[in-house]
Amino acid sequence: MWLSSLKVITILGFIIFGICMAAGAGAEGVIGFRYWNDPGPFAEYILEGATGKFVGFWAVLIQASFAYQGAELVGVGAGEARDPRKTVPRAIRTTFWGIMVLFVVSIFLLSMLVPSDDPSLLTEASNASASPLVIAAMRGGVRALPDIINAVLLTAVLSAANSNVYSGSRILVALADEGQAPSIFRVTDKHGTPYVAVAVTSVFGLLGFLNLSSDGGKVFTWFLNISGVAGLITWATTCGAYLCFSRAMRAQDVSRHELPYRSPWQPWTAWYGLVMNVLVAMTQGFTCFMPWNTADFFAAYVSLMLFVVLWAGHKVATRSSLVDAREADLVRGRLSF
Length: 337
What we know:
Blueprint: H1 2-25, H2 34-37, H3 49-59, H4 61-68, H5 73-77, H6 84-113, H7 132-139, H8 145-177, H9 195-203, H10 216-251, H11 268-283, H12 294-318
């Protein structure tokens, strides 16, 4: 909570800073929407003209989706919440507005403060100098900010690692409860912590040391693509699971009003999420075909390949079939009726 609070305070501080810089408090004077006209918000990539700008936009969707991943952890935490019927709906609403205010507003301000052709955006430096937040501060004449951003990034990494170990270990526990993972993952200490699942999940963090190699940039790109596509698969399957759940509720004449939380505009938003996540996951590596690059192809699509192999292997091994909506289990695991 404290690590996340530091991130929130930093972003709120940047929002105030960005408004002041755009209004003329920095070394560049009044900026306003100057960079929206010249050079424009979209940069050409591979191709020229409007097509090149669209290619550039689509090529960065995997990075953008990676930055937003983690919002789904609210559902994972529901299993250990003291009163999930009250706390989970509140957490979901807070997450939505937090993303809208902290992410979208800060990106909006960055588009005003940093031109799309700034050479610092493409630097290969290993510190925070390539961060748009730092670039905005440097252009505004604030020289002390890079060190502050580096410190905040360190706490952000610790916060992300903490939440990922939590979510990964609890997913292993859930799989073990369903009989789809070794039962040893269900072992807990006297405080209820599944230490075996936590240890196994934590071991994968050691892969981060690969980034210290001479090809650290390539390693980071591989990890970014693998985890980014895996997140898209998670979102797509979540939307698909909700659509099946909604169909089962209709088939069994169960009203949505019995649910403690009802997201708006369903099932249309679930269909939108399913289609868009599948579309981005299938096309996010299109640049490896322009021209063909074998290494980039596997970096972009290895997660999809692994998902298909595991899904098909599970179906063959368990000989499971589709569940009839009228027979789907909507009772097990409910806290109240």
